[in-house]
Amino acid sequence: MADTRMNPEAPPAPEHAPIFRKDYEPPRWWVPEIHLDLDLSAASTRVTATLEVTRNGDHDEPLRLAGDELRPLAVRVDGKDAAWTLDGDDLVVPIEGDKATVETQVEIAPEKNSQLMGLYASGGLLCTQCESEGFRRITFHPDRPDVLSRYRVTMHADKARHPVLLANGNEVETGDEEDGRHYAVWEDPFPKPSYLFALVAGDLAANRDHFTTMSGRKVDLAIWVREKDLPKTAHAMQALKDSMKWDEEVYGREYDLDLFNIVAVDDFNFGAMENKGLNIFNSRYILADEDTATDGDFDNIAGVVAHEYFHNWSGNRVTCRDWFQLSLKEGFTVFRDQCFSQDMGSEAVKRIEDVRLLRAVQFPEDSGPLAHPVRPESYIEIANFYTATVYNKGAELIRMMHTILGPEKFRAGSDLYFDRHDGEAATCEDFVKAMEDASGADLSQFRLWYSQAGTPTVTAHLDHDPASGRAVLRLQQEVPDTPGQTDKQPMAIPLRVALLSEQSGEPIGEERLVMLGETRQSVTFEDVNEPPLLSINRGFSAPVTIKTDRDDRELQLLAASDPDPFARYEAGQDLMMRALLSAIDGEPLHTDAAIEAARATLADDSLDPAFKAEALIVPSESMIGERLDSIDPDKVHGARDALRKAIGEALSDPLRAAQADGAPGADRSGEGMGKRKLRGVALATLAAADPAEGARLAKAHYDAADNMTDRSHALGVLASLDAPERDAAFADFYARYREDSLVLDKWFALQAMAQREAALDEVEALACHPDFSMKNPNRLRALVGSFSANQWVFHHASGRGYKLLADMIVAADKLNPQVAARMVPPLGRWRRFEPGRAQLMREALERIAGEAGLSKDVFEQVSKSLT
Ligand code: TRP
Ligand code: ZN
Questions:
Q1: Is 308 a residue of the active site?
Q2: What pLDDT shows up at residue 759?
């Protein structure tokens, strides 16, 4: 029998009821001060919380404190035992006057906390993760981001096991206690929401450094890791100092405490967390050296270190009023970290990478059953809304405002925003209003980007009349329906547009910023006295899909000469995509234009190698799938393989030259990294054309490597080849790195990304490998995340891939609901696949839905995916 919870007619179980943005009400009680006393140990930690509470306004409601798996051992109001009750998970405490001191005591078991929310054990460490609603797993508290408190934290722990005790802010007192225990007291002078609370207790060593701020204050910096990992912290430390400087120079933002601590932990649900003065990181975003980390890992580390540091202003000094405003801090902070990375490396290549990520992850989300606006209207479990839409599309919204206002007015807007809302919990509306007030711009239509989900499509057609020297650009926009939203209003879409000479590729007149606000709109260009090429959405100025009727010849010219690097890249990608789509449609594969564009790119000495590498990467199978109404993964795979083979054959000479032109691992310059990237793409393309020769080349590439980038490129190629070199290289890699869990993650991921007939068998075998564990989120994602993103293999016509994923989701949900729920979206795309697969995918979802005792997290993702 079907589970009634999945029946849309039946009212949801109370614990699965949605929360609506429109229902926001200010808190009934403030908590200006908190003292936490924690008697720490992995088995059992006693938490005594003392909350100073004050009544907010004129009402007679009791104090209501959220809890999650907590049982009160004692509740006192002003020193006297209180007449408390429990309402579900909430602790309800009656209070007479307008203020009181409320003391609660609970006992928690960090080592049993497999959700990794609240206080948990990772290795020998004790650490916390509170965003969004983890603080209520440590102590009873309002635990909502608009309640800001000053914290004083006392930690007691065994001195031998946990010699280092850290919390937010500054250390104010330490000392020894009986029985080999010790204590430390930390105070954070800045009022903060509970989700920014953190503590760490463990045996850690610090890489210490310092930074002098623009006003001349010295800030002590420390990155805490296990002693043996200290040599791998140099890159993160440099990134931290670079970020501090960049935020001063670009946003005028200075750090505000005398101390900034970062701790790396091995078990972590996400990338990292911006806790005030005590950032906690997934160790994969801190630890790196040439031998164990790829250039991509190095870049991600710098990006995440910057992201968390930038949150000190965009998130901590100005926080979110409620969780519907999540993009206020995340979209803005992603935009800030993207710009930082653009400034530190190649601007064009970083933009290409960010757009690729947006298209690979956010576009599918926006066109599927889990689509939601950047500022959602409702949620069942907020942890499900840490999405590419809130983060990456949110960042595109900020970037569009930057484009519309220009850098000076944007900076005036951000200054006003920080100034106006410092110390407050703000909304997305507050941000847009500050931008408007500082610039005089009217962003009323622009606000629709926050409320309307779905990726708009813009159709563009250019007419040129040689007689009048006039060119007319006709634009039309369409905003697709998404769950719960139909008949949308036209959006305000900023399009950077230029016309280029067909002859020379030189611009005809200035680039223009076209604001497309109507459903249909035309724009006239004067003095166009030669046939023009259309360069549109330059720099990817708006997160939309552009459809044009430019032919192969025009795209080839743009791919060879557009001065805007993103548009140039895009023209080449369009050529490949066209060839792929028509082949999937049953036409013969026409590769000439794409090959000629790639040849010209490879030969162009003005281009840096990283850009060439990007231009040579054929659109991924899932990206191709996004463009189809009914995906047949075998056809997509076949067409993509054929195109890669054709490019590899036609360009074998320049590709061989690129593959032979490496850079030593010690060369971490842009040039060095670019060469390694291009050589990896060249290797992969050559192997597509000639697998046997590819296997030999890849093995040599692997054997000669003095760095992880080359090694993993080679392994990535070998993974998809049925050749003896494959097994030899994987065995070598395993033997060499089996003790290094971050590198072993790569070993799992590379095999799960392999594209060969036997790949599914191997993934099934890896799921039983002794080194596989569902308890460690990195390991789980390395295998299951990589596999479910491997379209051709995951969507095996037998449905075995779906079965494996469904089994994994059900099992993972019992340990860690947040991480399990993030594995659901690949199954949710069922409507986009050919009927046989769609049916099997649906069945897998239904089977999950029928499980008893599903978490809210998985329940929400699965039920939304089915309706
Ligand atoms: N605020 C964090 C960031 O983006 C996100 C985060 C860290 C998080 N840990 C989490 C979100 C756990 C949900 C659950 O930087
Ligand atoms: Zn963030």
A1: yes
A2: 95
